Amino acid sequence: MTKPPPISHSLRAWMDVFMHRSMRGWTHFAKSTGLTMPQFSILMQVYHHKGVCGMSDISERFDITNAAASQLVEKLVQGEYIERAEDPSDRRAKLLQLTQKGKDLIEASVNERYRWMDELGKSLSAEEKGKVVEALTILTEAAKKLENRG
Amino acid sequence: MTKPPPISHSLRAWMDVFMHRSMRGWTHFAKSTGLTMPQFSILMQVYHHKGVCGMSDISERFDITNAAASQLVEKLVQGEYIERAEDPSDRRAKLLQLTQKGKDLIEASVNERYRWMDELGKSLSAEEKGKVVEALTILTEAAKKLENRG
DNA sequence: GTATAAAGTTAAGCCCGCTTAACTAAAAAG
DNA sequence: CTTTTTAGTTAAGCGGGCTTAACTTTATAC
Lengths: 150, 150
Fold this sequence. Notes:
2 copies of one chain form a homodimer.
Chain A: H1 7-32, H2 37-48, H3 55-62, H4 66-78, E1 82-86, E2 94-98, H5 100-122, H6 126-149
Antiparallel strand pairs in A: 1-2
Helix pairs in contact in A: 2-4, 3-4
Chain B binds a DNA duplex through helix 4.
């Protein structure tokens, strides 16, 4: 019987293997779409903002100027990935939203990333699955709590 | 009692929260070093290649031409992050290796990313920690097996 | 030993992201 | 109602990444 590793060790080990694998797929997919990484990241951001996302949200999130965000978004509007409308409640502001094309693209990317995870799930025994589900639920909840406080 | 979620769901939920959080820190740190993302990524790659890494390893990994890799690496050599030596067993090839400065930088970045994970670990009860350690060990092993086959 | 392939380098040139600066238009403050 | 602040756009210009093309040097094939 070996002593179980401390939690920081197992968290780190998992993170290393997970990040390494995940990053590869991520950049590879982005490139295959013909979009640049900044463009792709903006689509992701708008996607996660479910519906309402102003131009300033973009520039803050990526730590760039409004000018830069505006230009990036302009290209995505040209490419018909994003719809840019006037905010009726503040006519200076814009409401950004993915078009169907944009949504499809991001969802394809997310599915691509899920695929590996799903395979991982399938490779486990029923007992292992149970343990993993329980632990990940704990972790996800804890992460959300930490996020809301910090 | 609610039914436990299927494993694909808990894996995906965890992945979403983990990726979202991790990416932010990642790009933010890279930017704060003054290096560009491609440059930073190359340092990471050399770091994980522990010791021996040729120029072609870089170009293959990032799907760019040898010319591009060579120019990127040149900048990192100028910045004293990378040491570029001739491979004695094949004098056409180069051996890339991080300098101490390069190692320090990458390790700082990794630690930054570990910090959140460690906080997460600390926020759990002893019982939860036990479960998480067990499950992550299972997952990490399964991931490594999958990697070696696929 | 000559021909061919492979590893890297260098330079020219393109596109892209980003910043600054000047601007428009709308909202908030006084 | 005027002033100031806020949201966003546009254009000029810089620097970076990447490609192609031409080249050097070393290894491999025949």
